[in-house]
Specification:
single chain, 6-stranded mixed sheet
């Protein structure tokens, strides 16, 4: 109201560390603390060098020597437990007495409580040290972070268990109690889902120093000697000794699965896939691989078109929605369709006043098909099946001027692919657009390219073992579709 500059007066090093040495104490390092203060709208931070001359001042001496000489000072704000000077004097009455003849206004903030617990650095520190990280974060109104450098470990984790980054924290940082935590790691301004063990590794050896080991998900770079920050979200369990490394590995796998569920449940990226019999879908795994983080992903398995969710319901819940067989035509009449020459869509995009439908099948198939034609000099294509994917391929081949034949599975003629092979077999590409559960047989002597739009089907890929067929499944196309969809949904990947 008075249009004054807001100033915070603080000390560096922390008085406790100056008096007691560089011991685990700080909740936040000095640079991070100052950044947090600035975020609150403070105009200026005055950081006094705490040394022996400051340490030996009484509260009255400090106030008269420093604050008493500030002519422009008009307001002073004190915390509920404000103490100052040698002996940590309760200086609230003293400060009122010293400035009683001035126009300076003094305000005392009452204690802030959360769940009947006073918010103070002491209570935060105690909760961190005892592993009550959820309570500590609640008191901080942010997640506790531990900064440090990645150092070499014993190599047991990477060789026998799971690869981890071993953190050497700053000596003055308060350390979490032993146990396994769900965490996030910040490396060069990027954030990664992770799981962290704080403890003495009793299952590895009888006597070990305390270690902080973090397993990062969707990350495999070398960060040895890098400075990182580990953010603690919640605790999974206490540290426990296991009799064998195999028992420990089984437990770590359970911890990892629990962490994955946590990240997926708390993700702000919520996607969905609508289709029939889609429990085999690998889309979530692909999206998480591209985004390098876990996401919330719903498989909306519909067996009746009447049960399809409305666009308004979908928009209220999800950032983006994909559609697969047999419902790729179900929303055509209620969205604005891109690629209007196509009669199906598989991606719904929310825009301000409308819903737009795209077909990433078309984009991904076109990209791969053009590469086949140019790199392998394909002169003939045989399409197995005559559904929506086959129609997309037909349109693209027609535009490219490549000869093609469509063999309908409804006509039971998929077993006669050999009749369509021309004299130069490796210039022939067979594309299987049929359903996952459809099986077909091919002469084993064919020298062809075979592209299966399905993925991870052993029953299909096994057909070509020991043959000259160059087989490719549809997982690469699924990744391309996902990249296009993420672009339309404005979800950035690394």
């Amino acid at each position: 109201k008075k249009q004054l500059k807001a100033v915070v007066l603080t000390f560096n090093p922390h008085p406790y560390l100056f008096i007691n040495g560089n011991v685990p104490y700080l909740i936040t390092n000095n640079d991070a603390k100052n950044d947090l203060i600035k975020l609150l709208g403070i105009d200026l931070i005055v950081e006094m060098n705490f040394d022996a001359s400051i340490r030996d001042l009484s509260a009255e001496e400090f106030l008269k020597k420093f604050l008493g000489k500030q002519d422009k000072l008009q307001l002073i704000y004190l915390g509920h437990d404000f103490k100052l000077g040698k002996g940590k004097c309760d200086a609230r009455e003293l400060i009122r007495k010293i400035f009683s003849n001035s126009a300076i206004e003094i305000y005392e903030h009452p204690a802030r409580k959360i769940d009947n617990e006073v918010v103070s650095s002491t209570s935060v520190r105690e909760n961190i040290e005892t592993g009550n990280i959820t309570t500590a974060n609640n008191l901080l109104n942010r997640n506790f972070r531990l900064e440090g450098r990645v150092v070499a470990g014993k190599g047991v984790g990477g060789k026998h268990l799971f690869k981890t980054a071993n953190l050497m924290p700053n000596k003055s940082s308060v350390l979490p109690g032993t146990g396994v935590y769900i965490t996030k790691v910040f490396i060069n301004n990027r954030k990664y889902d992770s799981i962290t063990n704080v403890g003495f590794n009793p299952s590895i050896a009888a006597e070990n120093p305390l270690s902080i080991e973090t397993h990062l998900f969707h990350f495999d770079d070398d960060i040895y000697k890098e400075n990182i920050s580990v953010e603690f979200l919640t605790k999974i369990r206490d540290e426990k000794k296991y009799e064998t490394l195999e028992e420990l590995k089984v437990q770590i796998e359970k911890d990892i699965e629990q962490a994955k569920l946590y990240f997926r449940d708390h993700s702000n990226v919520k996607l969905a896939l609508i289709g029939k019999d889609i429990q085999h879908s690998q889309s979530q795994r692909v999206y998480e691989k591209l985004l390098k983080k876990f996401i919330s992903y719903d498989l909306i398995d519909i067996h009746d078109e009447k049960s399809l969710p409305s666009l308004s319901d979908l928009k209220a819940k999800y950032v983006g929605v994909s559609i697969t067989a047999p419902y790729k035509q179900s929303y055509l009449d209620v969205v604005e369709v891109k690629n209007k020459e196509l009669d199906s869509i598989n991606t719904l995009v929310w825009q301000e006043h409308k819903v737009v439908g795209y077909n990433t099948d078309y984009l991904a198939i076109n990209e791969i098909l053009q590469k086949y034609i140019s790199d392998e000099d394909i002169s003939k294509v045989i399409l197995l099946g005559d559904g929506s994917m086959s129609k997309i391929c037909s349109n693209l081949l027609r535009e490219s001027g490549v000869s093609f034949v469509v063999l309908s599975r409804r006509q039971s003629n998929l077993d006669h692919v050999d009749k369509g092979i021309i004299e130069k077999p490796y210039n022939t590409l067979v594309i299987n657009t049929c359903l996952r559960d459809y099986t077909f047989s091919l002469p084993r002597y064919l020298h062809i390219h075979f592209w299966d739009l399905n993925y991870n089907l052993d029953k299909h890929s096994q057909l070509f073992l020991g043959t000259s067929v160059k087989y490719r499944d549809g997982l690469g196309m699924l990744e391309l579709q996902a990249k296009y969809a993420l672009c339309y949904w404005n979800l950035k990947t690394f």
